[in-house]
Amino acid sequence: MQNGKHLIFISPRFSAGATVGGAETLLKALALRAQSMGFKVTFLTTCARNHFTWRNELERGERNIEGLPVHFFPVDEDRDIGAFLRIQESISRKGNYSPEDEKTWLANSVNSRELCDYLRRISADCDGIIMGPYLFGLIYFASRIRPEKTILVPCLHDEGFAYTRSFREMFRSAAGIMFNSEPEMDLARRLYDLDAQKCAVAGMGMNGFDASPSAFSEKHNFRAPYIIYSGRREAGKGTPLLVDYFALFRKRTGLDLKLVLTGSGPIDAPPELLPHILDLGFAAEEDKRAAMAGAMAFCHPSVNESFGIVLLESWLARTPALVHARCAVNRYHCRKSNGGLWFAAYPEFEEALLRLARDRSLRDRMGQAGREYVLREYDWKTIENKFCSALEQFSKNSLAKTQGTPK
Prior knowledge:
The chain is of the alpha/beta class. It folds into 2 domains: 6-205 and 379-403, Rossmann fold (3-Layer(aba) Sandwich); 215-377, Rossmann fold (3-Layer(aba) Sandwich), CATH 3.40.50.2000. Helix content is 43%, strand content 15%. It has helices spanning 22-36, 81-92, 99-107, 113-122, 137-143, 165-173, 182-192, 215-220, 239-253, 285-294, 309-316, 328-337, 346-358, 360-377, 380-403; strands at 6-10, 40-46, 61-65, 68-73, 128-131, 150-152, 176-179, 199-201, 226-230, 258-262, 277-279, 297-300, 321-324, 340-343. Strands 3-4-2-1-5-6-7-8 form an 8-stranded mixed sheet, sandwiched between helices. A 6-stranded parallel sheet has the order 11-10-9-12-13-14, with helices on both faces. α2 crosses α3 and α11 (309-316) crosses α14. The longest helix is centred in the last third of the chain and has 24 residues, at 380-403.
């Protein structure tokens, strides 16, 4: 099926080394896998590296990265940041804003006219344009160029931005939407009343690995039990809540539990807590996996996830999880795998963490169950089949609409 077919991938950022976020990791991994399956792949992205400033830090032009032809285009520099932030604040809290406000917000979001112009020139004969995440002006405007070929990989969250008229239009006009999980698809269908034929779940394949549970403590001379969090440190990921709960847990229980962090961003913790936090920063994969393997639990406090890559990685390291109950995706993974517990408030956090701390056998069983779940559900061959099935489904659906025949 795939031989000779051309897929264009679009993401606002692309990293030549370790990718810089879950959505970028996902799009890059799917593009690499599609190419290995025989598709012709072209990847379009911007020259930005920092997701706060969106400055053009990378050189524009085409480069071959890990075998992929990647085209870098500058982010438009004539954005009205003040207008963008003013309207974004209202949208994020589901406040009052008009259709004109939405247009202004999207026009001053992260955009690249050069990328969209190039897409118009090369997309006439392509077989699909796979783009995401949904949240950016770039994705919205790119999706309007050839909606009949557009396949969204939205990484959708239940947040204010998802309720805008513009994104509802984008989801409904796309040829297909490739979701990362069942809860993400359920959310989109609830929000946008989507036809089932334009929806499919694929996700991303996960490569199994083995990591010694003692390697981390031996390398860092770190003998105390600890929990671990990996990823960006920001309010949207729940890290301030984790720090507060961790401090309260130590105070209330008297247990000498530590917190290990990998990833990027500041940690705002009281001075007396800092000796009990080990921040590894942006750790190499081997170090991150070793840290996960030695942890008592992987704690994921975010309430907005569409897939949960680091959660699945922690299970590959045979470490049980503790996630926020308001995150439908992470709770879904924990329930389906029997690999984790969840909390909705501090008392449940304390109860779950004490249960894990006191029962090594439970930790081992949950960690092993999580690993088996990931190896079973997210093997790359399984994901390849889902990916190809989704492309065929979207193609048939679009053809049926064009010809006016029953689906």
